[in-house]
Amino acid sequence: MRTAMLALLLGAALPALADEGMWTFDNFPAAAVKAKYGATLDSAWLDRVRRSTIRLSNCTASFVSPEGLILTNHHCVEACLANLSSRDQSLVQTGFVSRSRNDEPRCATQVADVLQAMENVTDKVMQAISGLDQTAANEARKKALTQLEQACEKGTRLKCESVTLYQGGQYFLYKYKRYDDVRLVLAPEADIAAFGGDPDNFQFPRWSLDFSMLRAYENGKPAKTPDHLPIRFAGPEAGELVFVSGHPGSTERLDTRAELEFQRDLVLPNWLLRYSELRGRYIQYGKGSEAAARIVEEPLNSLENGIKVRRKLLDALHEDSLLEAKSEAEQALRVKMAGDASFGDPWADIARATTIERGLYLPYLFLEGAGGFNSATFRYARTLVRAAAERGKPNTERLREYADTALPRLAQQTLAAIPVYPELENLTLSFSLERMREWLGPDHPVVRQLLAKDSPDSLAAKLIAGTKLADPAIRKQLWDGGEAAIAASNDPMIRLALAIDERSRAVRKRYEDEVEAPITAASEKIAAARFKVYGTNVYPDATFTLRLNYGTVAGWNEDGRDIPPFTYLGKAFERATGSAPFRIPDSWLKVRDSLDMQTPFCISTTNDIVGGNSGSPLIDAQGRIVGLMFDGNIHSISGRYWFDAAKNRAIAVHPAILREALQKVYHADTVLRELGVR
């Protein structure tokens, strides 16, 4: 593995190494695929797959019919299910099957984006920052990107987003068609969708029916989507070439050693300490009543997933071979650039900035981040306060998240009618205030400001009891009323957001000037050097933008034991205990005798994916869906930093189990007909 890792970090031609790489559609190595596998991916294939792949707000999905039907993971719609639930009924637990188009409820905060075009704007951004020092360049870069986004959207119905690739080596405008009316069609019960729960998470073999269906609407009607992917329900063969089209969230394979050490020493340990304790509080709260268990289910599932990921990421960063290979790669590039006096030592620049970041990390986390004020109503308050203040400024002078191009989505999220549970708000807010006092210290100015006469529990209780921001009508009044409405508001959450805003902004400004600016400037230098030496044989880190990856259906060898690439339905019933997380729902038990126990359930492949790829279609060489990506094995977690070709595996739901479930368990005949199953 060491040789492969070093080659990756040095920027060698990746396809010769392994089937790895999260390639952008404009730079996909089709020739390498042709040479190795004999498959031809022409521009028509790539365009159809691109226009059929969807970016949800939190995951990937794909169109699977000409009438806007969307296939994705259950865990990708879990928030929608929770938002459509109540204290007395949980759609996460019971599942949902729409029997007609009129019964498809809207997911209030979900959007579906489809990439239409990509424009390279690197030269325009570089021109905007030319000759400026790193602090001024950081501001000019943001202004230029805001202007480019605004100009892109003017006179069109497209949603334009700036995309940074290769740590600043390239800047693109990605142009999307956005569907902001997304409705729920079908979701299985959590017991089968997440069969095995946290114990099976990131493991294989697996038996999780992690799928759901949505539908995109336009003008109140199902969207017309001629570009969609047919499903090959027979699924793939072992060893078959397969592709994943999706939106991997974030990788750090091109980060410097100093940046990885910062994650290892501070970010990951701090996160794990705080959220492992919060997990315990969630579990205890959920044991209080059936209603409490329903309320906490979705955030607990998300948190447990995050804990397992970060535990393994921390383990990965304690592997000396990674950091040694990183140092060797950095030194190799230094040597190649030794004759360029203007190059300097950008790795040293980043190391100095991360030293400053260590001192700013906790104040930034607890004041500007979510560390100190973990509450939905506080997040509403901060958004309303800042939106009011920022909208009064010229567009390019605002915080980037409040630019004109971002406001429609921000309004949708802020004004959506979703349930807010006061008891859960109390739990999370009081906990985060406790941790703020613990980590910043009782004498920190903000801690003294808030807790001189209150405990975290009493302050949280007063804030949650007094705020009216759980009511979307109140939020809309404040959003529409702007600065005057905010200034006149006596809502305690609004007053809190106002009270800490100056100090929070000051910490953010220091971070942007002293950490973000020098790291961005140095990263651009390193990226330029990589391009000069290696060209585009190196794929960019994941940025939750559309990528295409290729691999094969394959298992792996674990401690001398071969792990086959397929699992089958019968084993799920054998593993069932009758209690969560190994409980099979009654809907399945009732039809057990009619089910084919030899139905393939899950698939293991060599594809290179990370979080954000959840819901991605697994596609064959003819452009048909042969699986639905939902997870990776335990070795895939370190894929944030490198790709281990021997053991890193992606996990997909087999399409055969989808058909078995739709036909025999959920009797979703209209959905099956829409998918072409007669």
Structure, explained:
There is one protein chain. With 678 residues, the chain is of the alpha+beta class. It is built from 24 helices and 19 strands. The longest helix is centred in the last third of the chain and has 43 residues, at 492-534. The two termini are 48 Å apart. The model is unreliable at 11-17 (pLDDT under 50).
| Rg over CA atoms | 25 Å
How far is it from the N-terminal to the C-terminal residue, by CA?
Answer: 48 Å
Structural class: alpha+beta
**What is the averaged pLDDT score?**
95
Q: List segments where confidence is low: pLDDT < 50 over at least 5 consecutive residues.
A: 11-17
Which labels suit this protein?
single chain, 678 residues, alpha+beta, ten-stranded antiparallel sheet, seven-stranded antiparallel sheet, 19 strands, 14% strand
Summarize the structure.
By secondary structure, the chain is an alpha+beta fold. It contains 24 helices and 19 strands.
Secondary structure topology:
Layout: H1 2-10, H2 30-37, H3 43-52, E1 53-56, E2 60-63, E3 69-72, H4 78-83, H5 91-94, E4 96-97, E5 112-120, H6 122-129, H7 134-153, E6 159-165, E7 170-179, E8 181-187, H8 190-193, H9 197-200, E9 212-218, E10 221-222, E11 241-246, H10 257-286, H11 290-317, H12 320-336, H13 346-368, H14 376-391, H15 407-415, H16 422-440, H17 445-451, H18 456-466, H19 472-488, H20 492-534, E12 547-552, E13 556-558, E14 561-563, E15 566-568, H21 569-575, H22 586-590, E16 600-605, E17 617-619, E18 625-632, E19 650-653, H23 655-665, H24 669-674
Antiparallel strand pairs: 1-2, 1-5, 2-3, 3-9, 4-8, 5-7, 6-7, 8-9, 9-10, 11-12, 11-17, 13-14, 15-16, 16-19, 17-18, 18-19
